[in-house]
Write a structure and sequence with these properties.
Elements: E1 2-10, H1 15-23, H2 27-35, E2 38-46, E3 51-58, H3 63-71, H4 74-83, E4 87-88, E5 100-102
Amino acid sequence: MQRMGLCIGLKAGQVARYRDLHAAVWPDVLSAISHANIRNYSIFLKEPENLLFAYWEYVGTDFEQDMQVMRDTPVMQDWWKICDPLQQPLATRGEGEWWALMESVFWCA
């Protein structure tokens, strides 16, 4: 199992919309996330900075392949068409990243 943390900004004025979307995530989106071997997925919001922090645990054996399958899933593409315009990627994110991958510096069981 691999714990992963990611962050991104949320555009000004989009907090209520983002909250509403995530209060009723489409069942097929949840299914696609599960099929991609992601568990314990949470997104946290820090206001007034409008920073989002995502945490999940990856339980598969081929992360890149699982992410490609999820990217190719039509319902995920539809979901991202709605959510992505609300987000503001960090200028310091890695090449090819939308959400910036974070380094784990501490964990306690």
